[in-house]
TrEMBL record:
InterPro entries: DYW_dom, E2_motif, E_motif, PPR_At4g14850-like_plant, PPR_rpt, TPR-like_helical_dom_sf. PPR repeats lie at residues 79-113, 149-179, 180-214. This is DYW domain-containing protein. PANTHER family: DYW DOMAIN-CONTAINING PROTEIN, PENTATRICOPEPTIDE REPEAT-CONTAINING PROTEIN. NCBIfam families: PPR. Residues 395-487 form the DYW domain. GO terms for biological process: RNA modification. One of its GO terms (molecular function) is RNA binding. Keywords: Repeat.
Amino acid sequence: MLERKKLPNKFTYPFVLKACAGIGNLNLGKSVHGSVMKFGFGDEVNVQNTLVHMYCCCRGGEGGIEFARKVFDEMYKSDSVSWSAMIGGYVRVGRSSDAINLFREMQIKGVCPDEITMVSVLSACTGLGALELGKWVESYVEKERVQKNVELSNALIDMFAKCGDVDKATNLFRSMRERNIVSWTSVIGGLAMHGRGVEAVAVFEEMVRSGVTPDDVVFIGLLSACSHSGLVDKGKGYFDSMRKDFSIVPKIEHYGCMVDMLCRAGLVKEALKFVQEMPIDPNPVVWRTLINACRAHGELKLGEKITRQLIRNEPMHESNYVLLSNIYAKMSDWEKKTRIREAMDMKGMKKIPGSTMIELDNEIYEFVAGDKSHAQSKEIYEMVDEMGKEMKRAGYMPTTTEVLLDIDDEDKEDTLNRHSEKLAIAFALLNTPPGTLIRIVKNLRVCDDCHSASKFISKIYNREIVVRDRNRFHHFKNGLCSCRDFW
DNA sequence: TTAGGGTTAG
């Protein structure tokens, strides 16, 4: 009897391509794409949509996102699924601006977005830290009556929290009729980022009381909340409770939170002991947390030793060199610092340039250190000078040990004044009415000097300044910061 | 009976 050969049909490929997406192997995906063409399913919109999604999920070589865009651009007919797949793809690889631009194109083309599209667009706003844009998306959802399901509400909570308006995030959470563990996690994590640990703990307790079983992710948010608010004893208690009361085995992220918690509290030695006694291997993130604490709390020799070991294990990770360079700067050991710089140059590594973003009148402005590209550049630098004078009159001392260059103090001060954060604040002071809140978003952590300067500026100019840095928020008000100088 | 989405340390 002849064996009947089964041929793939148009329902087969979405399955297979989805599996490829899960594996994330570009070459495998390409070969399935070849098969799609061979069997004549290259014009099926459903198959094309999954191809776009598959390529968006693939790494390797030059990355799959450009292949995805090629398939997407060549589609004869596209629907909201195609656009969502492509927009979501950009978000996943961190290309939030491209995601937003594609959404604008979608509107011009007249393709109607649905709730899934809007979730990705909100994630893009979150990635950029663009609150005004996020608010616009929210009003669009209301106006166009996009179905507001749990996922979309969760995306809104996350967006508001990570774009700086955690009160709005909390209110939204309160108004939800149906919540799931992600909703709770988003609001707890959001409060954590803003240093509102006591409230985060209260929300967690409320969650448990209401019968929702915590998972490992919500514990990351909870422990990070304790860490950012200096609640060391509470944090230790919850860490033990994970295993004891909820049978959750702590993962490296939970250990990371504990190390961070001890470090922020200045308990560097205890943190080191904790790391040495951990039942799982510490990863580079844990070591870097410890190293940064060594620098901040003056344990410079210990920090140097750990960093040297880390560089031996991870020689191509640039932030390790930056950490070591920061330690030498604090030791005022310019010779060793220069050698680190040279080692980085030889390996072709560069420090990531710091940048600061600010939204004004529906535009996004970005500043880098020493930026002269802005039309208002002259006024901005005049404003920076004026700010410097006012701050000094109020008692501000530039933190010149932060500057990683072997130059004299006056030049160091000039370098500090050109930090992107100060340029963005000057720009905001020039262009917004007195008393208005200033929101800025940084790609790196805020430096000691900008942190100190922001406190002075909030008082002198009577402005609340909300800064999102790489890890968390700082709310500067009347000369104080919500992080209570733990960061 | 197929395709796109939300939370995760520093």
